[in-house]
Automatic annotation (TrEMBL), chain B:
Organism this protein belongs to: Thalassospira profundimaris
Protein name (record): Glutamate synthase
Pfam families assigned: Glu_synthase (PF01645)
A GO biological-process term: glutamate biosynthetic process
MF terms in GO: glutamate synthase activity
Domain Glutamate synthase: 75-332, 356-404
Family: Belongs to the glutamate synthase family.
Keywords: Oxidoreductase
């Protein structure tokens, strides 16, 4: 397995190596050491590869990822897996703001806590957070699933569209147009699969509450002006 | 005995004019602000308030039709491995598929390509029509990130990070449900028929320090090949440009308040942001103060209509200009041949601006399958190319008259202003004087 040391290798060389991988080739494996908070580590990959990052990363790690499996053995700065299309990103520690922002697909697992605006404007990604998430998470979330084993901060799901939010702990407050919804059998099944995909076996889907859009702000109505 | 006194003629208020009265009645009836497309309709100091001096005893002109006057421009020379080369200094501004019909986007791509220049996507992602028909395509990176994906990012020729636009600096957008067809909905990952809000701030960065890191990410994703533009509305041009340079822009697009929008509140369009003329000199000064003029290219937009406007913008220090509204007119927007249809909508050709309603008689700002057939993308593309050619010839004519062998050699010294406001904004002398208001102590 190639080992790239960011203490001695330029970030550009690392990303260029990952971009050079054959999209239709065999699954590759890379290890990155000494990331030391570098930004834009392992971004724009479009190939089957397992990337193991040993340490903490700065902004936008795994940005726009396609296909790759990326694991950060540390913490992640803002915008981890932003605009991800497919593949899997696992953060062993905590994640900062905007985790999974605008992402269209794939699975993001945060084993620690996620800060504010987790899943902002998400467009199809599945996000599983083992800890808590901060305020304004899932703001304007369009589609996909956000699963939180811990608690959620203020204004969860503000102005959200069709994304599904599952929270096991407490929700400090719900944002505009976000309401509690029934867990129907299809949601139990979906959540069971998401937990399984995230490698979580000791928590049951029935322990979660589902939140989603009341769909009252979908078409502008002056009588709703006070909601903003 | 009756006595008839002379009466005064009925007099309407200048403050409460007919338009104002109609707006008060409209607001009272509906309880909602007026939303419309296009840019400001009020009169503001503009390029018409400037004149070129031409050659004279101390300057000699170049021969028209004989001596060459270059018009090419290269954008993205600062960091990008693959700068874009345009034959003319006029580009097509970002306008979204969703707001515009597919045939209209195709026409813009065809026209720009024939003329040797670039066109730009908009909110809602990149369509095959425009990628396929645009030799040089700039891909906008917007707060909504509708349709944003790395595949399109990599097949773009440049990336334009949109911070704001001149019609509404500080504002987001709204595409009303009636324009959300199946295709538009699919591209934006949202249900059909609902209003789609476009955020006013980017979701994953705040401020210029973050933006610097965002740009680093976009460069890494695209292997440092693509020029990165930053587009700002005409708010605080000196500081906005300085911060964009600091954040790592290759190119800055500066859009004044005459720049159009697909849909925004009338009050926003008319009361927020500065005129294009007022923005250029502060922007150029920021570039000069940082030693980056001509190294980071400046594209100016907002109310560019003809070759004289192009020449004046370049003389004030821009590297290129961008057109939106004028390009739409060239492909058929507000054409009097649809006057009956405009009348049926309660308006007239030349005034139609309810672009958000999706009922455009010209078939441009609509997703209606029948209306959009009124745009023949090949013929409309040819008209746009013709128009771009005329603008270029006009700019060359003026440049030659000023003795310049490249339109970029035009300079403020070639200009004077017709009134004090324009002289102050453009930083050129009032005609017949050596007075530049705001300079020299008073």
């Amino acid at each position: 397995m190639p080992v790239l040391d960011l203490a001695t290798t330029e970030l550009r060389a690392l990303n260029a190596s990952l971009h050079a991988l054959d999209k239709n080739g065999e699954n590759a494996e890379f290890e990155v050491i000494n990331p030391r908070g570098a930004h834009a580590v392992a971004v724009g990959i479009d190939a089957p590869v397992d990337v193991h990052i040993k340490g903490s990363v700065g902004y936008y790690c795994a940005g726009m990822n396609e296909t790759a499996n990326i694991t950060v053995h540390g913490h992640a700065g803002p915008g981890v897996a932003e605009n991800m299309m497919s593949g899997k990103v696992v953060i062993k520690g905590d994640a900062s703001q905007y985790a999974g922002a605008t992402a269209h697909g794939g699975l993001l697992v945060i084993e620690g806590n996620a800060s504010s605006r987790c899943g902002i404007s998400m467009k199809g990604i599945d996000i599983v957070v083992k800890g808590n998430i901060g305020h304004m998470s899932a703001f304007m979330a369009q589609s996909g699933n956000l699963v939180v084993l811990g608690d959620a901060g203020d204004a969860l799901g503000d102005s959200l569209y069709e994304a599904r939010l599952f929270v096991r702990g407490k929700v400090k407050s719900l944002g505009a147009d976000c309401i509690k919804k029934d867990m129907r059998p299809e949601h139990i099944e979906l959540l069971g699969k998401l937990l399984s995909d995230a490698g979580i076996t000791d928590v049951k889907p029935e322990e979660f509450t589902r939140y989603g859009s009341a769909r009252q702000l979908y078409n502008f109505n002056i009588d709703n002006a006070d909601a903003y | 005995m009756s006595h008839k006194h002379p009466v005064t003629t009925p007099r309407k208020s200048a403050t409460f004019d007919d338009y104002t009265l109609s707006e008060i009645r409209r607001a009272a009836a509906t309880g909602i602000y007026d939303i419309r497309g296009s840019g400001t309709k009020r009169k503001v100091p503009h390029f018409d308030d400037l004149l070129f001096l031409g050659a004279s005893m101390s300057r000699y002109p170049l021969e028209g039709y004989r001596e060459k006057c270059e018009t090419s421009v290269t954008l993205g020379t600062r960091f990008a491995k693959k700068p874009i080369e345009l034959k003319i200094p006029i580009t097509i501004a970002g306008m979204s598929f969703g707001s515009l019909s597919g045939p209209a986007k195709e026409a813009l791509g065809r026209g720009a390509t024939l003329a040797g220049t670039s066109t730009t996507t908009g909110d809602g992602g990149m369509t095959e029509e425009e990628r396929g028909h645009s030799e040089t395509l700039v891909y906008q990176y917007l707060p909504s990130r509708y349709g944003m994906n790395p595949r399109d990012l990599k097949r773009a020729d440049a990336i334009e990070i949109v911070i704001g636009q001149g019609a509404k600096p500080g504002g987001g957008g709204m595409l009303l449900g009636q324009k959300i067809s199946d295709r538009v909905a699919h591209m934006r990952n949202l249900p059909k028929g609902i209003d789609q809000r476009s955020a006013c701030r980017h979701p994953d960065w705040t401020g210029p320090d973050d933006l610097e890191i965002k740009i680093q990410e976009l460069r890494e994703i695209t292997d440092w090949e693509k020029p990165i533009f930053i587009k700002v509305g005409g708010a605080r041009p000196y500081y906005d440009v300085a911060l964009a340079v600091k954040a790592g822009a290759d190119v800055i697009v500066l859009d004044g308040m005459q720049g159009g929008t697909a849909a925004t509140q009338e009050v926003f369009i008319e009361h927020v942001g500065q005129p294009t003329l007022a923005c250029i000199r502060p922007a150029v000064k920021a570039l000069q103060d940082m030693g980056m003029h001509r190294k980071v290219q400046l594209i100016v937009s907002g109310g560019i209509r003809n070759g004289a406007d192009v020449a004046k913008a370049l003389a004030l220090g821009a590297d290129a200009v961008s057109i939106g509204t004028a390009a739409l007119v060239a492909i058929g927007d507000n054409d009097p041949k649809w006057e009956e249809d405009y009348n049926a909508l309660g308006t007239t050709a030349g005034a139609y601006d309810d672009w958000h309603e999706g009922r455009d008689p010209a078939g441009i700002t609509t997703q209606d399958a029948d209306l959009m057939k009124r745009v023949d993308p090949i013929a409309a593309g040819r008209r746009l190319a013709n128009y771009l050619k005329v603008m270029t010839l006009e700019a060359q004519t003026i440049a030659r008259a000023c003795g310049k062998n490249h339109v970029h050699n035009l300079e403020p010294e070639d200009l004077c202003a017709l009134n004090i406001e324009a002289a102050a904004m453009a930083g050129v002398p009032l005609a017949g004087t050596s007075w530049i208001p705001g300079q020299g102590g008073f």
